[in-house]
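Why should sequence recovery work at all? Because a backbone constrains its sequence more than one might expect. Tight turns favour small or flexible residues, buried strands favour hydrophobic ones, and helices have their own preferences. The token representation captures these environments compactly. In the example below, the structure is given first.
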């Protein structure tokens, strides 16, 4: 925005020319769907908005809306999840297209997982290389021939999207092991209403508060056959897990118990919960414990987080697990490169949402390209999350690039590379500067699949790279979030 054109909290807002700003055009004009909310925010002085921002932060702290990071030097240190009061707006028409593409992708992924653990047609037809699947550390032979209720494996999916400078959405990755972040979507909306109630009620925004009941309905739809009054629980690793707040929040809002592994036991291939009134049979478990630690009798024998024997109960069909163990091979970032083919194979449809061009370092010609062009690429490990282990070529030193070349050469299966995408930017309040500046954003959407039902939450977690010039939006890497408004027609 030109010098002196902006006032108040928007200061001298400057849009980097190579990026797409969702709020302002390159000419400095406010984009139409933001005009009304922009006028409202322009009424705040810097001092008023700082006070409002502090109020929102205190609200998060008082509600316990925090997260922790595993590499904190002080173990157990909790942080407030940074939240920006200026919302991200998505039109009804734009969202309808996104929702259609997200469901298409999640349904195809479910069929893919089902096929891999049964007939393996897609491997026999050589659409996806068999060695790519069997070399994934998240492929689990223990899941072979297990048939979950209604054939659903990825009950809860998180799809990460970016909006590129060309105005199109691209899928960055699929998350179908234990996708997190939904509690921040819900609490962001509560904070927004509390802080800016008069402003919020003037806009026709789709609700997000139905998610806990939709999740419970999904759990109910996949209860084992023949159970008259199923018992549902959320299984957490415990209070030191980085997403413990979310586990507790969802259990509370669904009205079901939050349990740890030590609260459950298996007897005669049935799962029971310890209660003051004696054992109570458990039928459906929304588990937030990673596969490796879920059952020490089947996986890591040193695990104290899981439930010994629960995989035996699952194999017998006496308990349902959400998500199914072993889904992780399907959200491997190398398998991601085959998603367009997977969609065409199972659904006989063209993909609605775009993939980002991706190079598999395992393939000789692509490995050579990556090694020669690393300064133009983002390098990612295929099995990490949280923004860890990533190299952004144009921001890395020669020493860092040299180190990564060695890492890749030692384990080519572990790494993929993608062009450096220009994530869209969004006006974000920066503490210390006390004004709005453009910051890169992405979007994690949340999808539920159950027996004869599917649901995509109208809204999602818009994650913000708070560090100037950063493309990493993860909270563990210093990112924040925004409330995402999907407008009604």
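From this structural description, the recovered sequence reads:
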């Amino acid at each position: 925005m030109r010098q002196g054109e902006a006032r108040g909290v928007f200061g001298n807002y400057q849009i980097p020319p190579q990026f797409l700003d969702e709020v302002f055009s390159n000419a400095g004009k406010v984009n139409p769907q933001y005009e009304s909310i922009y006028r409202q925010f322009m009424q705040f002085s810097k001092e008023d908005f700082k006070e409002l921002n502090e109020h929102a932060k205190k609200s998060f702290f008082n509600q316990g809306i925090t997260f922790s990071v595993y590499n904190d030097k002080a173990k157990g240190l909790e942080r407030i999840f940074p939240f920006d009061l200026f919302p991200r707006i998505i039109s009804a028409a734009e969202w309808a297209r996104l929702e259609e593409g997200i469901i298409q992708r999640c349904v195809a992924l479910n069929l893919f997982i089902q096929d891999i653990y049964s007939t393996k047609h897609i491997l026999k037809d050589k659409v996806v290389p068999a060695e790519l699947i069997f070399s994934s550390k998240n492929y689990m032979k223990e899941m072979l021939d297990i048939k979950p209720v209604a054939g659903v494996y990825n009950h809860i999916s998180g799809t990460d999207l970016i909006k590129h400078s060309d105005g199109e959405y691209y899928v960055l990755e699929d998350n179908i092991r234990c996708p997190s972040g939904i509690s921040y979507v819900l609490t962001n909306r509560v904070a927004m209403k509390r802080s800016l109630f008069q402003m919020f009620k003037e806009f026709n925004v789709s609700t997000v508060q139905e998610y806990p009941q939709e999740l419970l309905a999904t759990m109910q739809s996949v209860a084992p056959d023949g159970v008259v009054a199923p018992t549902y629980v959320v299984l957490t690793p415990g209070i030191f897990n980085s997403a413990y707040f979310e586990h507790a929040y969802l259990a509370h809002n669904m009205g079901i118990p939050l349990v740890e592994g030590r609260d459950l036991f298996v007897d005669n291939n049935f799962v029971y919960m310890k209660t003051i009134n004696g054992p109570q049979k458990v039928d459906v478990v929304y588990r937030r414990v990673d596969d490796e630690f879920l059952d020490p009798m089947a996986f890591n024998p040193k695990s104290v987080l899981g439930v010994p024997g629960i995989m035996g109960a699952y194999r017998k069909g006496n308990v349902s697990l959400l998500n199914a163990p072993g889904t992780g091979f399907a959200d491997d970032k190398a398998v991601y490169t085959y998603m367009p083919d997977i969609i065409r194979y199972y659904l006989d449809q063209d993909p609605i949402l775009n993939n980002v061009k991706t190079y598999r370092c395992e393939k000789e010609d692509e490995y050579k390209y990556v090694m020669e062009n690393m300064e133009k690429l983002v390098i990612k490990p295929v099995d990490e999350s949280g923004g860890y282990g990533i190299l952004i070529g144009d921001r890395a030193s020669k020493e860092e690039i040299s180190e990564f070349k060695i890492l890749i050469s030692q384990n080519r299966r572990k790494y993929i590379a993608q062009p450096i995408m220009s994530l869209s930017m969004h006006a974000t309040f920066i503490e210390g500067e006390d004004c709005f500046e453009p910051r890169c954003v992405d979007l994690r959407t949340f999808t539920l699949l159950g027996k004869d039902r599917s649901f995509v939450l109208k809204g999602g977690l818009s994650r913000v790279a708070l560090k100037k010039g950063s493309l990493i939006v993860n909270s563990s890497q210093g990112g924040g979030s925004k409330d995402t408004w999907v407008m009604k027609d």
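A few observations help interpret the result. Residues 1-6 have pLDDT under 50 and may be disordered.
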